[in-house]
Design the sequence.
C-alpha cells in the first residue's frame, strides 16, 4: 500500500511555447507561487522590522535553528518521492543525539568513532524500516510510526529520563558551532546536501526510478525497475540523514535529553509537503523542500519579532501542513482531470 502518490505538474517548454505572455504567467504562477510568497514575506518583514529582520544576526539565527530541520526534511523527501513516508525522523533524532553524546561520555568512544557509529545505526534503522515496508508489506505510515515509537522508548530507557551531560571535545562542538564567512557551517552542510540530491534526482537514473516508483510501483516494476531495492535504499538514506541531524543536534545542545527532538517531526514533514507544491508541483523535490522550510523560517521569525507567543510556531507549522496537503491534493486531482 502506498502512503503518497507522486506525479509532476510543472509545464513543459513545448506546452509554454504557444502560449501568450499572460497565459504563460498564469501557468507559471501556481508553479512558483510559494517562491514568490517567500520573497514577498522577506521584503514585507524587512520593511516592517528594519532594525531586526534584515540583519546578519537574524540570518545566523534562522540558519542555526532550521538547518537541522532542513536535513530531516530532505531526508524524509527521499522515501516520499518513492510513494512512502518515514515518520522515524522525528523519533530517531531523539535517540541518535543522545547516543552521540553518551557514547563519548559513558563508553569512552572518540568523537569520530561515536559519529560513525551513530550514522551506521541510523542507516541500519532505515534498512529495518525498508524491510518492514517492502518485505513484511506493512504500510509505511504504520511501520515507521511503530519503529519510531520504539526508538523513542529506547531513548527514554537509555537516558533514564535524565539529561546526559559531560565534557566533549571541541572538535565535536565545531561540527555545529563553526562559522564560515560569518554564517553557521550547518548552512553549508545543507547547501552541499541539496546540490548533491538535486544532481541525483535530475541527472541520474536513480532519481527517475524513485519518481517512477512513487507514481506507480506496478508500472515501474513492469519496466524493469527493482522497486524493492530502491525503496529500501530510500529508507536507508532517510535513516542516515536522521542520524546526521542527531549528531548535529548533539553538537549544538551539548547535552542529551529525551524531551528534545520530537518537535522536529512536524516541520520536517511540512517542508517536504510544501516542497511538493512548488518548483515541480505534484511531486516532492529538493528546491521545493528548501523553499518550504525557508518560508516557515521567515514566517515564524517575522511573527515572533512582532511579539508572537511561544505557541505561534507549532500553530504556524500545523496550519501550514494542512494547507500544503490541501494544495497537494488539489494538484493531484487537477492532474487527474487533465488526463481524462
Sequence:
Amino acid at each position: 500500500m502506498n502512503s503518497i502518490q507522486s506525479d509532476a505538474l510543472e509545464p513543459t517548454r513545448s506546452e509554454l511555447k504557444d502560449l501568450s505572455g499572460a497565459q504563460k504567467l498564469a501557468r507559471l504562477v501556481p508553479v512558483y507561487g510559494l517562491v514568490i510568497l517567500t520573497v514577498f514575506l522577506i521584503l514585507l518583514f524587512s520593511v516592517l522590522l528594519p532594525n531586526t529582520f534584515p540583519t546578519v544576526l537574524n540570518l545566523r539565527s534562522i540558519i542555526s535553528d532550521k538547518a537541522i530541520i532542513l536535513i530531516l526534511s530532505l531526508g524524509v523527501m527521499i522515501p516520499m518521492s518513492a510513494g512512502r513516508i518515514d515518520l522515524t525522523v522525528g523519533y530517531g533524532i531523539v535517540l541518535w543525539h543522545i547516543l552521540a553524546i553518551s557514547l563519548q561520555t559513558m563508553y569512552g568512544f572518540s568523537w569520530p568513532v561515536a559519529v560513525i557509529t551513530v550514522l551506521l545505526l541510523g542507516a541500519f534503522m532505515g534498512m529495518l524500516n525498508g524491510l518492514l515496508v517492502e518485505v513484511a508489506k506493512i504500510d509505511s505510515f504504520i511501520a515507521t510510526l511503530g519503529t519510531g515509537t520504539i526508538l523513542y522508548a529506547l531513548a527514554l530507557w537509555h537516558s533514564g529520563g535524565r539529561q546526559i551531560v559531560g565534557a566533549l571535545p571541541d572538535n565535536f562542538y565545531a561540527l555545529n558551532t563553526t562559522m564560515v564567512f560569518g554564517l553557521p557551517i550547518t548552512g553549508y552542510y545543507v547547501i552541499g546536501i541539496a546540490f548533491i540530491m538535486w544532481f541525483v534526482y535530475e541527472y541520474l537514473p536513480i532519481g527517475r526510478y524513485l519518481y517512477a516508483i512513487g507514481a506507480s510501483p506496478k508500472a515501474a516494476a513492469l519496466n524493469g525497475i527493482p522497486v524493492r531495492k530502491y525503496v529500501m535504499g530510500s529508507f536507508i538514506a532517510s535513516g542516515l540523514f536522521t542520524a546526521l541531524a542527531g549528531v548535529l543536534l548533539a553538537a549544538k545542545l551539548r547535552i542529551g535529553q529525551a524531551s528534545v527532538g520530537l518537535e522536529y517531526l512536524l516541520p520536517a514533514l511540512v517542508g517536504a509537503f510544501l516542497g511538493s507544491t512548488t518548483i515541480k508541483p505534484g511531486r516532492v523535490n529538493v528546491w521545493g523542500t528548501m523553499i518550504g522550510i525557508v518560508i516557515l523560517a521567515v514566517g515564524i521569525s517575522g511573527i515572533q519579532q512582532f511579539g508572537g507567543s511561544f505557541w505561534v510556531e507549532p500553530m504556524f507549522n500545523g496550519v501550514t501542513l494542512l494547507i500544503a496537503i490541501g494544495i497537494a491534493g488539489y494538484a493531484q486531482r487537477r492532474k487527474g482531470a487533465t488526463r481524462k
The CA atoms of residues 51 and 58 lie 10 Å apart. The two ends are 24 Å apart (CA to CA). Residues 1-8 have pLDDT under 50 and may be disordered. DSSP finds 14 helices and two strands in the chain.
